[in-house]
Amino acid sequence: MSGLLLVGDVVTDVVARHAEPLAPGTDTAARIRILPGGAAANAACWAARSGCSDVRLLGRVGVDEAAWHEAALRRAGVRPLLVRDAEAPTGTVVALVDGQAGGERTFLTDSGAVLRLAPADFSPRLLDGVAHLHLSGYLFFAATSRDTAVLATAAARERGVPVSVDPASTGFVGALGVDRFLGAVAGADVLFPNADEAALLTGLPAPEAAAAALSRRHRLVAITLGPEGALVAEAGAVVARVPAPRVRPVDTTGAGDAFAGGFLAARLAGATVAEAAAAGCRAGAEAVTVVGGRPAR
After folding, report:
1. Which of 9, 54, 121, 257 is catalytic?
2. Pseudo-torsion of CA 115, 45, 168, 265, nearest 10°?
3. pTM for the complete prediction?
4. DSSP letters along 52-93, please?
5. CA gap 277, 137 in Å, rounded
6. What residues contact residue 21 under an 8 Å CB cut-off, 6+ apart?
7. Which residues are paired to 251 by β-bridges?
8. What stretches of 17-65 show up as alpha helix (H) in DSSP?
9. Where in the numbering of this chain does the Carbohydrate kinase PfkB domain appear (predicted)?
10. Are 260 and 238 within 8 A, CB to CB?
């Protein structure tokens, strides 16, 4: 088995890059693009870009843009398994990208159909031929999609398929509650937080300490550190730290998704955790040089 199944969000990104500070109450010049996005979908595309030949994505989208998203995923080498929702639109994210802050982004999120992914949308048969299951953290922020994520985790564990989770959002984790989030993702083998998410989940500001603490809950924890690279912890200890390639960032949207996709593709190909983290950092560095969260075609 070599397949990678990702479950989570497929959204339409409206990326607005502004070179000057936002001017409240009036106009701010920006370059605006509409692109396919979503943390799970982005990670799937980066996994395919990083060499994984069997990447599948389960998500829920509105009928309005389903065909567009399916076509974009296929072009990226991902097999779309999209559920079409006739009652809710495709999720939309407005990404405000600050050109004066190294491409740092702020998100405005309308989850739309994303959080309506229901247990009936998942079947254990989706795990046939799958060697790893990856869940977007956004699934855990609403009851229906959280039930689906828990169901998928249980089905994977029953088959001996490892599971990873990307916490996705400090804002949404904080709104749900750290204890509730940690309880919901307790079945995950691998966690992919960034430094801020790791600090929130542990109360420990130092990434090394946070990684060590989280790796007592999960078998493997890889924390992304932006331009400083990433570190990996297992069994309560940091076991690897890798640098990130030096690049000039244009848009940091999707950098963490790219890391997860690159990391998982490398692990499925037999890489060590340090090698996988380096692969993830290479994907993340490439991601910040393009607009949006997907590889450039």
Report:
1. 257
2. 120
3. 0.94
4. -S-EEEEEEEETTTHHHHHHHHHHTTEEEEEEEESSSPPEEE
5. 20
6. 28, 98, 100
7. none
8. 39-49
9. 4-294
10. no
Residue type at 172?
F
CA distance 145 to 168: 14
Whole-angstrom CA distances from 147 to 52, 84, 119, 141, 215 are 28, 19, 6, 10, 24
What is the pairing mode between strands 130-136 and 11-18? unpaired
Tens digit of each residue's pLDDT, the chain (297 residues) = 789 999 999 999 998 989 888 889 999 999 999 999 999 999 999 999 999 999 999 999 999 899 999 999 999 999 999 999 999 999 999 989 887 766 677 889 899 999 999 999 999 999 999 999 999 999 999 999 999 999 999 999 999 999 999 998 999 999 999 999 999 999 999 999 999 999 999 999 999 999 999 999 999 999 999 999 999 999 999 999 999 999 998 888 899 999 999 999 999 999 999 999 999 999 999 999 998 899 987
Q: Active-site residue 257, yes or no?
A: yes
CA-CA distance, 95 to 291, in Å (whole number)?
Answer: 11
Structure tokens of 144? 């229906």
Q: Which amino acid is at 288?
A: V
Tokens standing for residue 152: 């998928």
Residue 199 three-state SS: helix
- Cα 248 from Cα 159, distance rounded (Å): 43
- Would you give the distance in Å from CA 164 to the centre of its chain? 10
Q: What angle do CA 223, 226, 161 make, to 5 degrees?
A: 35
Instruction: Specify whether the CB–CB gap between 17 and 30 falls below 8 A.
Output: yes
Q: How far apart are CA 11 and CA 252, in angstroms?
A: 17
Indicate left, alpha or beta for 136 from its phi (over 0: left) and psi (-120 to 50: alpha): beta
- φ and ψ at 199, to 5 degrees? -65, -40
218, 191 in Cβ contact below 8 A? Answer: yes
Rg of the chain in Å (alpha carbons): 18
